[in-house]
């Protein structure tokens, strides 16, 4: 009798042709963040180059390499378990919203008050230390939240982040430097949305950067200097070439605990923000066909961030928005690990300084706008049409937060603030600053709660809608949403209003009858059944 042998499943490919596209796309995204981060450290916080290039950036590079390698391994496991060849690794890196929060809310005030940028760095390390434990603890709660929260609420609040905080800045930068940026955007648009292939399959991201750099340097040679390029900046960049590996910074982490009161005000709510954002991004990947375990994702972000801060990195790690975009480009497993190796090379050798001088940042902005377009549209494409109003509602807190940020920055540049100018005066010009502040406070949670209430109302599941209204009341009462800080009774009238909404919804669940066909709005009739069917 012949022996029967089983054929082992083929090993997932670690690199595919599509990984080149995703690598250049995601890699340039990471590069933009590193360039911005470096600029904040050097020019806003006034940190010495030795601290930036020999301590902070090497630790940042190590953390990001650990993160991208882990998510490549997680994708490899999923591909091997399922036998699928189209599994795409989750993108990850420095959390961009947190990057600005920790710099402007934590590090800059403390550095300015003490006159010592190192104290600001220490406070940033402590901020990440606390957030890391919030992430690790919250990882075990996140799967439950994901199960009970409608997809439209998760993707809707994610779309709000995408439109307000990913798409708007690069879009504005593009039209400020149109000669460089708009051709780059066209190169990306016709390839990644239009399916156009470039010479011998050259990745669109690489083509865009090459063309943008060529135009920027060419304009400089002709005396126009559209991209802000300078030969002297290139020569100065070579001074920062050093081989620097991360050095433990444990004493600096605990040195920042003297500022604990200031740190807790933002560390805890932004830790919760991370939980919700990671859930959103895992949900986005699941919609694209790749289901990753939420608990492992969140705990991994917490552990990797903790390691990073212990080595001197004051920025939190996070799973990025954009998995469907990199997957649509052909990204699989290798692009994630390759990006981590790229970051190690750039940060440990001091090459980032040279990149700042060589590549116009505006040539990379179109890639970020593309990701924002893709994620914003996904919320509408991957949910029932009848849930579209809920998605729009979930967007509004993020638009309010973005509007308030623009006003604050403008007034700050003028050496004043909204309270000094007067809310009444602002209101007379049509600027409802108080409304922007309340609606936009804790926007990620606000968008999720409002979106969930709307979805369950549309589905006539009034008790579930009431439950989310109750959660909104609790979050609002303690300042996690519709507030500027954690505390008791931060915006009590809004919290009471949510309680009133919950009472109305409970009453609807007990006494409301289904609407008749004649009373159904045309938009609902267009998309299907009468409510209650």
Structure summary:
The protein is an all-alpha fold. The chain has helices at residues 17-44, 49-82, 96-114, 117-138, 142-148, 151-176, 178-192, 204-221, 231-237, 250-255, 260-287, 294-310, 323-328, 334-348, 351-358, 365-381, 388-413, 418-421, 423-428, 433-440, 443-458, 462-477, 492-511, 522-526, and strands spanning 92-94, 317-319. It has a two-stranded antiparallel ribbon.
Descriptive notes:
70% of the residues lie in helices and 1% in strands. The termini are far apart. The relative contact order is 0.16. It is globular. It has 24 helices and two strands. The protein is mainly α. A two-stranded antiparallel sheet has the order 1-2. It folds into two domains: 17-244 and 251-379, no CATH class; 384-526, no CATH class.
Key traits:
disordered C terminus, globular, two-stranded antiparallel ribbon, about 525 residues, about 70% helix, mainly alpha, 2 strands, disordered N terminus, 24 helices
